[in-house]
Write a structure and sequence with these properties.
alpha/beta; single chain; 5-stranded mixed beta sheet
Length: 144
């Protein structure tokens, strides 16, 4: 059962998706799926190649920006920023719980100049708490 949570009009997050969720993502109009989970993190979960294959079968673009235990880097923020800039439709990002995907989106938005309070509110509406990330968001946004 899909658990797609919108953060903005063009970006939603989800906990680990199944192969069946890919068809649901297509039905809901998503143009791309972004995997923020490293392969092998949970061997019983569908791995990146499984989701990529299912996405290709549905005509949905697929990208992987894995976020492991070492946390976030500017390269990951750059990668999501590029995908957002090149997007031809709504994006669905997923990880184990949706938290890493939400954090990466929030960091990208803050660096892009979005108002931090609005970012935090959008995440909260989707069920994600950005309190621990707030200092980094503020720093990236330059106080906006």
């Amino acid at each position: 059962m899909s658990d797609f949570r919108p953060l903005s009009a063009g970006f939603s997050v989800a906990p680990q998706i199944s192969i069946e969720d890919v068809a649901e993502a297509k039905a809901q109009g998503f143009a791309m799926i972004v995997n923020n989970r490293p392969d092998g993190e949970e061997p019983s979960a569908p791995q990146g190649g499984d989701i990529a294959h299912a996405a290709a079968a549905e005509g949905i673009a697929y990208a992987a920006i894995p976020i492991g235990h070492s946390g976030f880097s500017h390269a990951q923020i750059d990668a999501l920023d590029k995908l957002l800039g090149d997007a031809t439709g709504p994006i669905l990002a997923y990880c184990r719980s949706g938290t890493r995907s939400t954090h990466l989106w929030a960091l990208t938005q803050a660096r892009g100049g979005a108002e931090v309070g609005a970012i935090v509110d959008a995440a909260a509406k989707a069920g994600y708490d950005l309190a621990g990330l707030r200092p980094m968001l503020d720093a990236l946004a330059g106080g906006k």
